[in-house]
């Protein structure tokens, strides 16, 4: 862990590794499955936007393009145009195996493999992570352009939308990986310089393009993730004032408006996948809280208790979701995909545990489960309770 402290990162990658180890109650399963992931990446070619199946209307293969996932052909129209929205129902045509999400995941796994694999191939994983970065962002023939002008387009309606910026929401994991690869001495200086230039251009685009302004104006998880991206990118580029300003405004602008005194998130509960989007928005809010702590922001997301509230906002929002992690039978909102948010609740509890080691959540389902004490349960109890959920973390596939 000493190496991680040397890396000038947002320091979330280390947090996530700690989640895995704590949740699995040991490193064996984590390392075994991490190694499988890394070896699978090595068996494939580095990702490049130029090989995506979805293409931008410009015809330029370097322009990233994607389709809104919940949009479908209109069966009443001969050509299906314009598409119509079916919230929560994924159109398989919108899926592409080459995406920012998949790319960020691969670099994340390889970087963890470089640190913790026990098969002697650590250097191989680190070098492949660097090569992936070069192919995706830097090489002239394969790099992606620094904008998302054509992200989440809708056939018959638009080529791209502001909410398409959510496609790069996990760039925060890349920044962690880059800091660690740099600390390991495997990332060439020219690569780091080139990557910072790419994200400098992308940040400028997010802040000045109408699509960026549209995403910034969103009142649900999209707006929260926009703030996460702006703040994290600013930190990566060394623009601490910009990051602090964004984090300061985000507390009132996002969390205070998104989380009610009872912990519910009304803008996410309005969706057909209410538990999924509630978890997703809370995860983004937790990232903002961790960045605020990292940058020594004037607002303490984890400690501040607004007037009219009985506890800090992240803790309240997690407490609201807790009873439904075990039982969704009395969940009063839509849950189109079924299942429970157990994996997300466990993950969020693990992320918040360092901030609230002694806090107790008052589980409203206690009346159904006599094993839950009346005084509530700790975050460590939550992690232990749901750590065996097979969907706890993407890194740990079912065996």
Account of the 3D structure:
With 399 residues, the protein is mainly alpha-helical. The chain has 2 domains: 1-217, Glycosyltransferase (Alpha/alpha barrel), CATH 1.50.10.100; 222-393, Glycosyltransferase (Alpha/alpha barrel). The chain has 15 helices and 6 strands. The strands form 3 sheets. The protein has a two-stranded parallel ribbon with strand order 1-4. Strands 2-3 form a two-stranded antiparallel ribbon. α3 crosses α4 (100-116) and α7 (189-208) runs antiparallel to α9. The longest helix is centred in the last third of the chain and has 21 residues, at 274-294. Residues 1-11, 20-26 and 389-399 have low confidence and may be disordered.
| Secondary structure: helix percent | 40-55%
Report the mean per-residue pLDDT as an integer: 87
Structural class, by secondary structure, is mainly alpha
Please describe the biggest sheet, giving its number of strands, its sense, and whether it closes into a barrel.
Answer: 2 strands, parallel
Supply Rg: 21 Å
Distance between the termini: 28 Å
Basic shape: globular
CATH class of the largest domain: Mainly Alpha
Q: Helical stretch count?
A: 15
User: Which CATH architecture of the largest domain is right?
Assistant: Alpha/alpha barrel
Strand content: under 5%
> The CATH topology of the largest domain is what?
Glycosyltransferase
CATH H-level superfamily title of the largest domain: Chondroitin AC/alginate lyase
Order of strands, main sheet, comes to 1-4
